Amino acid sequence: MLKKLVLIGGGHSHALVLRLFGNKPLSGVRLALITPDIYTPYSGMLPGHIAGFYSYSQCDIDLQSLSNFAHAQLCLDHVIGLDLKNRKVLCANQPTVDFDILSINISSTPTKLSVPGAVEYTIAAKPVAQFLEHWYQLQENAVRNPQKALNIAIVGGGDVELALSILAGVRKLEIYLFQSSKELMPSHHQSVRRIMRDILSNQDVKLHLGERVCEVVKLINKGLTIKCESGLMVTCDQVFWVTHASAGSWLKAAGIGTDDQGFILVNDNLQSVTHPHIFAAGDIAKMINYQLPKAGVFAVHKGNPLYENLRSMILGESLKPYKPQTAYFSLIVTGDGRVLANRAILPLPSHQLWWCWKDCIDRNFMAQSPHQ
């Protein structure tokens, strides 16, 4: 009997799943990918793209070519819900899509609903495609008005790569970085935090640590003012929002087991803890036995085990648990053609050699993707 496998989202895990189904075709399965975009940026090269080291074509994953390679139907649409009883995916602009097995690999979005003005006047770092539209517009404005100095605010100090890449990508720029925690990059070792703080200070990034943004106000002259609980107010031209992530409300509404932020709870097999025929990977998944950061490196690492378990589910075979790395190299792009490498508590100062190493890894990953 023909099995219908539907993939929701064109994230890194699903890009690898499509590649592997293309390399190892499986009979008796009808494969479909539902995603709103034909292209998805590879997160490993995104900071380099913003800083001007890569063109968009060098770091985008062509989902149409991948789908063709995997003999998968590509449905360009937004998913708005699930009918789990009848195993149907509800789409915004086309008929429902039936499934026997479902896999979800979609992006999270920064949480900003509780801050007045944030939804209306700020730009979320995710989804990436939407962020890039605003970034390209900002670059165009800078070219049109080369004498005007732009003031950019980034709310959420965890993404220092974004601040440093933006500085490299646009001249005559001032950046204000707001972080509710008194420590920059609180999830990293203090030695890494110290090095990154020095790098940001040397680039004249204005750090506002321990400041909680409570409102974003649009001014008559089209500028924006950020207001903090402490009374601090900063006027800027653009605000990028990169605070803690959350998931789309339609997931929890569908009845899948999720955590408080709406992320799908999965076991070591990357299966939903409430619906074994549903899998999840990448930002949208929350492994119940591991605390993993929402980083592209883990989405890439989950690609192969996700494929193997989807294949095993189709064939009626036993699934195999995925065991994520407990120690891994964190490569932080500093926007100047250098990278800070960090493993556990051992930071290695930013250097061009680490950039060359990272560049080689990223280009090799992209080279494996089929192109028309």
From TrEMBL:
Q: Which InterPro entries match?
A: FAD/NAD-bd_sf (IPR036188), FAD/NAD-binding_dom (IPR023753), NADH-Q_oxidoreductase (IPR051169), Pyridine_nucleo_diS_OxRdtase_N (IPR017584), Reg_chr_condens (IPR000408)
Q: Where is the FAD/NAD(P)-binding domain?
A: 4-290
Biological process terms from the Gene Ontology for this record are: aerobic electron transport chain
For this UniProt record, give its keywords in alphabetical order, as a comma-separated list. FAD, Flavoprotein, Oxidoreductase
Source species, domain of life: Bacteria
The record's section on Gene3D superfamilies has: 3.50.50.100
Which molecular function term from Gene Ontology is one that the record holds? Answer: NAD(P)H dehydrogenase (quinone) activity
What cofactor does this one take? Answer: FAD
Q: Name one Pfam family in it.
A: Pyr_redox_2
State the family named in the UniProt similarity comment for this chain: Belongs to the NADH dehydrogenase family.
Question: What name goes with this protein?
Answer: Pyridine nucleotide-disulfide oxidoreductase family protein
